[in-house]
Amino acid sequence: MSKQVHSREVRKAALERLAERGVTVQDIAEIVFLMQSPYHPQLTMEPCIASVHAVLEKREIQHAILVGVELDILAEKGLLSEPLQSIIASDEGLFGCDETLAIGSVFGYGSIAVTTFGHLDKQKIGIIRKLDNKASGRVHTFLDDLVASVAANASSRMAHRLRDEQEAEMDAKAQAQQTLDNTDEQAG
Amino acid sequence: MSKQVHSREVRKAALERLAERGVTVQDIAEIVFLMQSPYHPQLTMEPCIASVHAVLEKREIQHAILVGVELDILAEKGLLSEPLQSIIASDEGLFGCDETLAIGSVFGYGSIAVTTFGHLDKQKIGIIRKLDNKASGRVHTFLDDLVASVAANASSRMAHRLRDEQEAEMDAKAQAQQTLDNTDEQAG
Amino acid sequence: MSKQVHSREVRKAALERLAERGVTVQDIAEIVFLMQSPYHPQLTMEPCIASVHAVLEKREIQHAILVGVELDILAEKGLLSEPLQSIIASDEGLFGCDETLAIGSVFGYGSIAVTTFGHLDKQKIGIIRKLDNKASGRVHTFLDDLVASVAANASSRMAHRLRDEQEAEMDAKAQAQQTLDNTDEQAG
Amino acid sequence: MSKQVHSREVRKAALERLAERGVTVQDIAEIVFLMQSPYHPQLTMEPCIASVHAVLEKREIQHAILVGVELDILAEKGLLSEPLQSIIASDEGLFGCDETLAIGSVFGYGSIAVTTFGHLDKQKIGIIRKLDNKASGRVHTFLDDLVASVAANASSRMAHRLRDEQEAEMDAKAQAQQTLDNTDEQAG
């Protein structure tokens, strides 16, 4: 009866949902930059944007975006049954399914991602703060956590990559020094 | 604008959703019994039922039931937007938000609960197998994982309680022996 | 060969380890107070202390404390094998087993606990900051995360309890009003 | 004081620990094969081995192996303090830090990995059963869970990859058909 959905459609739909709800890759990359620049003073926006794109390629995250934004929109339109409608529409403090759904994809990037997620969830930095503004009449109960999750994942991914690069550089230097030493020896 | 929902309403709604979708406390307690009876040969159904009731008192689990069953029902009625509608209606193999939502509440009962959940999810025991039967025309993509989660939590909770009771019994015996020894000493 | 360890011994050992490493229940309760007082202006230290005690009763948390502090002490004495010795002694940034162990017990108290843990891990409030001070020559790689976990759990536990109390109060008031109305009616 | 450890050393040490404790990549790949072959009848051992190698490249998993095997060895030698020594040496049923440490790296591969891990933990398939044999006088309290975790991760990773390949194949066929149709049209 039901057809298998192609990954291409899932990815496309997830990115469209983010855009429709007012979240750009640039917005999320700015949070990543704020998180990582204290540890890497020469950081530019470019690798942050690349890291957000890489995280958004993950099926688990695309699925979480589709589910979370669907629930936000249904709540905005008043189409959920009670008491779930009131709980999501009011972003009720003890409701945790939004964080649970978002955390599920956070684990994918290790413990740095989990702690960064917790931090972003409390501090509400950048676009996350804008989404949290209830005055707008819009419901972003799930979306703000999903954005925090993507930003946390992209931060963690970048921290690991930057270490890899740093080590590769050190290896190259050691290699060069070694070659130099060998040359000296032979010359000496 | 939106009112705060009373816990009483949340609990009532969660239990009603389970009943409406054909799941009773007895069904879940039977899974708990199957999981724990190999370790405790004299186990009866009564503490299994009590343990399921205790788990269903948790806000996190009530919220997860409300969210999961809502999505199942909306998918059953064809009311979700694509491609989410097809993904949930077909219980797509790589879709993991159902397990994520259920696992979120599983953590509450420690690592025994997590491994029991994984086991139940694969083996589909008792009511979980019935829910998994796609022939029914109903959608239980989230519900089967929620039931596995409640059963896993109740199993873990009971394993901890049974240990506590066992220790209390040993303590009582040791105490009695001690009293006896003291009496002997005084008498001797 | 090996005897079953009584829960009483496990609990006693876990509390002793905390004390030996310079962490008191009061220290942890102060973090809980800082986390929850913005939401509950009339909060006193007493329920915070009670909540920390309740969390420390959990087997999963006692086990995590025993494992984490053991590894800290072994690293402090230089008794681990390399490269683990260097990784733990230096509290290496990309090492995540300390957070993983601590997070395991955080899940027990729901998503509020997870986000609070992430926040504390980044902000290093109160005793957590003192433990993080590497100048001391001591190794607290695991302990600071364990303390953050206990504090996060106690905060989450208290948030749920305070809601329950608030609702009970509202119920009592509604009940009293109802009685009053009935009396009026009968009187009228 | 403490030097930064190079990733190369961490990876090398983690693989050596597995080998020293009697676990080969082949052993783990055999579990992956058993898990995935029901869904993919033409599966060979080769991609299973490749998937295990890929998972073992992850820092989080290497760290978890170093920590877990260290604790197993220390318990085997009787070098831990009590009551932790007895708890780990007896693989005490309610001790969950072994699963917690292993689960931490399981999240990296999504919900399929978590449920597969739970299943392997209960069923004790292949090398996991051998490790669980307490008659050997060796302690593998952490190692059996770490192996289950690597196998679960490699299974989940492969499930996602196989879907990607299947879709790429379908796309290629559709593309070929399209070219054929266009040629027909132009020819017609």
Largest sheet of chain A: none
CATH T-level fold name of chain A: YutG-like
Give the largest chain-chain interface (CB within 8 Å).
Answer: A-B, 37 and 37 residues
Helix vs. strand class of chain A: mainly alpha
Order of helices and strands of chain A: HHHHHHHHH
Secondary structure: elements and pairs:
4 copies of one chain form a homotetramer.
Chain A: H1 7-20, H2 25-36, H3 45-56, H4 59-76, H5 84-89, H6 97-106, H7 110-123, H8 127-132, H9 143-187
Helix pairs in contact in A: 1-4, 2-3, 2-9, 3-9, 4-6, 6-9, 7-9
Task: Characterize the structure shown.
- The structure is a homotetramer of 188-residue chains.
- Chain A is an all-alpha fold.
- Helices cover 73% and strands 0% of the residues of chain A.
- Chain A has helices spanning 7-20, 25-36, 45-56, 59-76, 84-89, 97-106, 110-123, 127-132, 143-187.
- In chain A, helix 1 (7-20) crosses helix 4, helix 2 (25-36) packs across helix 3 (45-56) and helix 3 (45-56) packs across helix 9 (143-187).
- The longest helix of chain A has 45 residues, at 143-187.
- Chain A is elongated.
- The N and C termini of chain A lie far apart (80 Å).
- The interface between A and C is medium-sized, with 22 and 22 residues.
- Chains A, B, C, D: Pfam families: PgpA.
- Chains A, B, C, D: Residues 161-188 are annotated as: Disordered.
- Chains A, B, C, D: GO terms for molecular function: phosphatidylglycerophosphatase activity.
- Chains A, B, C, D: InterPro entries: PgpA-like_sf, Put_PGPase, YutG/PgpA.
